[in-house]
């Protein structure tokens, strides 16, 4: 299914207007070195890999390594706010803009954004090599609901709970 109707290139650190007492994007960037080191050890060409770098009461930090064409379909964050920073390669993020139009934005190495607790997005690596990113969620994720588009409308498909043994962020 083709869901992208427009390509945007005005990458900004944060498109959502929200108050966040913790600068989650700054937290993500502070973990860049350890995330890259983690990815060197655990990144794979054939699968998305992820590692929990830090977990506290206020937030958690994950490193994620993405193979070419690796993706995570449209999802929410169960009421957590968050941020991600791209450390290597490039990731493309699909979101709905203010008009409800689906837009894909590239985030190259050095880029990233924060997002509110209501944010829904999908992420894919459309680059020619692996990509590494670091993600922060506040409070730590408890669940994520995944969606598919049916005639342009989002339909919830499943909710993954952290308590499940196959939990992945
Ligand atoms: Fe996400």
What does this structure look like?
The protein has 2 helices and 12 strands. The chain has a single domain (18-161), classed as Sandwich (Jelly Rolls), CATH 2.60.120. It is globular. A 5-stranded mixed β-sheet has the order 1-7-6-9-4, with no helix packed on it. Strands 2-3-10-5-8 form a 5-stranded antiparallel β-sheet, with helices on one face. A two-stranded antiparallel sheet has the order 11-12. Strand 6 (90-96) and strand 7 form a beta hairpin. By secondary structure, it is mainly beta. The longest helix is centred in the first third of the chain and has 11 residues, at 32-42. Mean pLDDT is 88; it is low at 1-19. It starts with 5 loop residues before the first strand and ends in an 8-residue tail after the last strand. Bound molecules: fe (ii) ion.
For the structure shown, list the relevant keywords.
Jelly Rolls; five-stranded mixed β-sheet; 12 strands; globular; disordered N terminus; binds fe (ii) ion
Write a brief structural summary:
This protein has 169 residues and is mainly beta. The protein has helices at 24-30, 32-42, and strands spanning 6-7, 49-55, 60-66, 71-75, 81-88, 90-96, 102-108, 112-115, 121-124, 131-138, 143-150, 153-161. The site of fe (ii) ion has 3 residues, from loops.
């Amino acid at each position: 299914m083709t869901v992208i109707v427009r390509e945007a290139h005005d990458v900004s650190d944060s498109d959502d207007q929200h108050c966040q007492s913790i600068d989650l994007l700054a937290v993500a960037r502070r973990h860049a070195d350890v995330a890259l080191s983690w990815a060197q050890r655990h990144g794979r060409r054939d699968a998305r890999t992820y590692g929990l770098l830090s977990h506290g009461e206020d937030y958690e930090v994950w490193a994620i390594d993405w193979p070419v064409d690796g993706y995570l379909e449209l999802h929410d964050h169960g009421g957590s706010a968050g941020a991600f920073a791209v450390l290597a390669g490039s990731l493309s993020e699909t979101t709905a803009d203010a008009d409800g139009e689906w837009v894909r934005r590239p985030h190259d190495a050095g880029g990233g954004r924060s997002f509110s607790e209501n944010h829904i997005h999908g992420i894919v690596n459309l680059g020619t090599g692996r990509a590494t990113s670091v993600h922060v969620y506040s409070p730590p994720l408890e669940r994520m609901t995944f969606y598919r588009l049916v005639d342009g409308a989002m339909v919830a498909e499943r909710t993954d709970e952290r308590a499940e043994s196959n939990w992945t962020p």
